[in-house]
Design a protein that fits this description.
The complex is a heterodimer of chains A (132) and B (136). Chain A has 132 residues and is mainly β. Chain A has no helices and ten strands. Chain A is globular. The N and C termini of chain A lie close together (10 Å). The chains are: A mainly beta (132), B mainly beta (136).
Chain lengths: 132, 136
Amino acid sequence: MSTFRATLNISSANLFPIPTNFTETVTDNVNGNYSSFNTNVLAAAATNVIIYGPSIAPGSGILYFYVKADALNTATVDIEIVQAGVTVSAMRILAGDFAFVPIDASIATTVRADNNSAANPATIQYFYGERG
Amino acid sequence: MAQLKTTVQFQTTTLFPNPVNLIIPVIEQITLDAGFSTAVVPIGGTYTVYGPTPGPVGTSLITYLYIQAAATNAPGDVVTIDITDAAAMTATVARLLPGNFLYIPIYANLAGVAIDINNSTGTAAGTFNYIFAERG
């Protein structure tokens, strides 16, 4: 069994606007049938499928998905969710940024990455793992 | 200026199936609006944590959104996070089990983008803590 541990820390050196400092840690188990680490180099203006939903059938209904854009990317990458032919695009990862989503895998979900650069490739690293 | 630091660690004590141990920290600077809130979503209810009117955005046009389900939420309830984009398309992007969280950078320059917590099939009210922070 593997563990997937995510920590969120917010800190501020100023009193305003956020006079706070806290750390939140979440630990999840990844012990299902599916887990994978991948690196994709998206060609200029390309859209790649990185998870094809119908091929993934987790037992728990949860598929942890983490995607990070390489810090050297010259453009943003949009992460698109496709369900029943509907494409939703609202997530955008800057160079060096990441997103973490526990996908509701009881719904056939395809995840795509869209390189917003018309001239340069973009690299993403991503992981998905079934909760089990 | 505040700083938001997220660290993701994946580790295993066995060789298979994932013989790996990695830690990835990411640090973001928050220079515009930020807020901490708690939402209690009743049975059958939906709660909008972001949008559909975009907030102030800086040159990055990015707002970071973090939502965590309380560990005391009903374990069997299917509470989902639904995203509607600027083209009015909606998808169920995530399901939050008790204690689980979601972290996404939203392309916040788009009017109509909305993030909803949907407890429509739940058996009990659910509590969710969320943070939004504009990168600037």
